[in-house]
Design brief:
Length: 580
């Protein structure tokens, strides 16, 4: 076979190896790989994709969140406390004020020697080192209070120790210079500066101000970086208030109540002194007293003035309401007479006086002087019980007075359509109706103030703005004759009747005593113990003060008239009171 023939066979299509397709430039440039190598490349490619997506997630999707967390880790932020407004008495004497203090806190993570620092803190702040050690050992948190509202000088001594992880915040602390005197009226604040009771609660919005904020970058040791303040909103201090309380008279009233209740042999007593012409309350208290400067020593139930917040059956002090209704109805005059048997019966119930007596004829004046249940019941029945019900509504005797003090009580009387004769009798002498002592004070003030009823209150003004508080008054009777007769009868209760010990030498004291039965939880009334009271005023006084003194849960043979006399005798001297 010659060379030409071999060449021809090799060039014939369809015979021998298949022709190769030309490779693209990229494939040509890459070395050929086997199957295992391709798998490795795929894995690396997937890993690269995962890292790429993670990078996108971190830098795009959650970038802001991580940035905020990083910023938070290098910043310190807290609320700054405003100075709470000062409370002044009517003479400008400070009753409650805020002073500079320092709150001490720790970041336990930064504490290097827990035991040593705990001992150092106890040496300056007092208390047990073990208590501080427990706080400094809380590694799960970066903030624990060591002492809130510490004295500034005390905090400075801690600063001098230069302890790791211990920091300080400027703060304020509430102080009550007079302790328990007026404490129930003033009230107190918690450690966060919020009013909890009394006028601190009533006027919390005015006194509290607005907290500020402080945020700054901090360095390696946690201290704020100079010039690194990022945000600061100044706190807005609260407003001051001036109230009607006279802290000097308040002290006198509290001492008189405390000593009087010891003599009466009870732990529960109360008193209120109010200006009948203005409604300003000069003094108010009830046992036990409360010390807002030392709440740990204050007894449960001491946080309220019970004469404002608690209702009771007033007993014979309410006979003045019935007598006024009788006079206004023109059914009797003070000298009109009436036959008064020793006992009367209505709806199968017997009514008698608190002391045994024979049947007798009495004037309306004598009925009030001797506090006759039978006499006032019959006199009110003859005048018409509807006049009594009208007087209760007109004088707002079972309605809240609107006093600016939290938790005021509200009285109750049965609707007139449900009255039977025995209900009418009972209400006439102060049973079957509930009121607060403050409501009775307002009524007696109306008698002293020529028929004008005022709103009892404490707030007088806001000194910083010059704003003076305004309160409603109401003319509830224009019957000058009935008012004069009522004052005349209340005067003879003191000169000739059961209120003799209430008199103040040289002054025409008017008022009414009370020995009220106490409703029992089992029904009926408790045996052998009573709520005592006296409410009265000096007729025609230049400072028109009306005063109530009450004593609860006491034996029968007791009176509060001597406590009233002690209070009013002091008030006469303090205010140079004269009488027309």
């Amino acid at each position: 076979m010659d060379a030409r023939q071999r060449s021809g066979r090799q060039g014939r299509p369809g015979h021998g190896r298949a022709p190769q397709r030309p490779r693209n430039p990229i494939d040509a440039a890459l070395p050929s790989v086997g199957g295992r190598a391709q798998a490795v490349l795929v894995i690396f490619a997937l890993i690269a994709v995962v890292f790429f997506l993670r990078l996108v997630f971190l830098q795009v999707i959650v970038a802001d969140q991580y940035s905020a967390q990083a910023e938070e880790s290098r910043t310190i932020s807290f609320t700054t406390t405003p100075h709470r407004g000062t409370i002044y008495d009517r003479n400008g004497i400070v009753l409650a004020t805020s002073v500079d203090a320092t709150t001490i806190y720790a970041n336990p993570v930064e504490v290097t020697d827990v035991a040593a620092e705990a001992r150092s803190l106890a040496g300056v702040l007092g208390g047990e080192a073990a208590d501080y050690e427990a706080l400094l050992s809380k590694q799960e948190t970066s903030f624990v209070y060591i002492k809130r509202q510490a004295e500034v000088s005390e905090a400075e001594r801690v600063k001098d120790l230069k302890l790791d992880g211990i920091y300080f915040i400027a703060d304020t602390r509430r102080e009550y210079p007079h302790g328990s005197i007026g404490g129930q009226v003033i009230g107190y604040c918690n450690v966060d500066g919020e009013g909890i009771t009394g006028l601190e609660l009533q006027y919390n919005d005015i006194l509290s101000g607005t907290p500020g904020t402080y945020t700054a970058e901090r360095g390696e040791k946690g201290f704020p970086i100079p010039g690194g303040v990022k945000e600061e909103t100044p706190a807005v201090d609260g407003q001051d208030i001036m109230i009607s309380l006279d802290i000097k008279l308040q002290d006198t009233v509290e001492q008189a109540v405390l000593e009087g209740m010891e003599q009466i042999e009870t732990d529960e007593g109360s008193a209120i002194v109010m200006d009948a012409s203005t409604g300003e309350i000069y003094a108010a208290c009830s046992l036990p007293f409360m010390n807002p400067a030392d709440m740990a020593s204050s007894e449960i139930g001491s946080e309220h003035v019970k004469a404002i917040t608690q209702v009771y059956e007033p007993g014979s002090t309410f006979k003045s309401v019935s007598a006024m209704a009788i006079l206004e109805a023109k059914a009797m005059t003070p000298e009109s007479t009436m036959f008064c048997p020793s006992t009367i019966t209505a709806n199968d119930y017997d009514v008698s006086d608190s002391h045994e007596r024979d049947d007798e004829v009495m004037t309306l004046r004598e009925i009030l002087n001797h506090s006759s249940n039978v006499g006032i019941s019959l006199a009110m029945d003859n005048a018409g019980f509807d006049h009594l019900y009208d007087a209760i509504g007109r004088y707002h005797l079972t309605e809240r007075t609107g006093v600016d003090y939290p938790g005021e009580g509200s009285g109750h009387v049965e609707e007139f359509k449900n009255w039977s004769k025995i209900i009418g009798y009972n209400v006439s002498f102060g049973q079957g109706i509930s009121v607060t002592p403050l409501q009775m004070v307002r009524f007696y003030g109306c008698i002293a103030n020529d028929g004008v009823m005022v709103t009892p209150h404490f707030l007088i003004s806001k000194p910083q703005t010059g704003e003076v508080a305004d309160y409603a008054t109401e003319v509830v009777t224009e019957d000058a004759e009935a008012l004069a007769d009522m004052r005349s009868m209340l005067r003879t209760v003191v000169t000739d009747g059961s209120g003799a010990a209430a008199d103040v030498e040289g002054y025409p004291v008017c008022g009414k005593t009370s020995t009220a039965e106490i409703p029992s939880e089992l029904g009926g009334y408790k045996k052998g113990i009573y709520n005592l009271g006296f409410c009265g005023f000096i007729d025609g006084a230049s400072t028109n003060l009306v005063c109530f003194v009450g004593a609860n849960e006491v034996p029968y043979q007791r009176k509060t008239t001597q406590v009233f006399s002690a209070i009013m005798d002091n008030a006469v001297k303090q205010y140079n009171i004269t009488s027309s």
